[in-house]
Amino acid sequence: MSLEPSLQLDRVIHEKGRLAIMSLLAAAPKLSFTELRDTLNMTDGNITTHIRTLQEAGYVSVTKSFEGSRPLTTCALTESGRKAFANYINLLEQIVQRAKP
Questions:
Q1: Hey, CA dihedral for 82, 88, 89, 94, is it positive or negative?
Q2: CA–CA dist 50, 6 (Å, integer)
Q3: Is the pTM for the entire model greater than 0.70?
């Protein structure tokens, strides 16, 4: 028996801040913390919390390095993150199709 697609949506991704992060990372190989924060107009604390949740779920990898003498934190989708995001988008498409007359 198949559950209603909306009940199958990944709750980690579904939160709007995390969905925005996943969407940006799906369109780029990697983005810096600053690029994500500024593009999404989030505070440091807010985006850090969302990235940590995505990282703990195995969806995002975080790399800390230096660019010259400045610290640089970059984020990228993991393979499992790409699959989870694709599944999420597919479920959304099913929901939209069911809602059409």
A1: positive
A2: 22
A3: yes
Half-sphere exposure of 49 (CA within 13 A, CB side): 6
| Cross-sheet strand order for the sheet of 70-77 | 31-32, 70-77, 60-67
Cβ count near 13 (within 10 Å): 22
Tell me which fold the domain 5-84 belongs to: Arc Repressor Mutant, subunit A (1.10.10)
Would the pLDDT of 57 be above 50? yes
CB-based contacts of 44, cutoff 8 Å, min separation 6? 37
Helix axes of 79-99 and 16-26: crossing angle, nearest 10 degrees: 110
The domain locations on the chain are: 5-84
Q: Nearest 5°: CA angle at 87, between 77 and 55?
A: 30
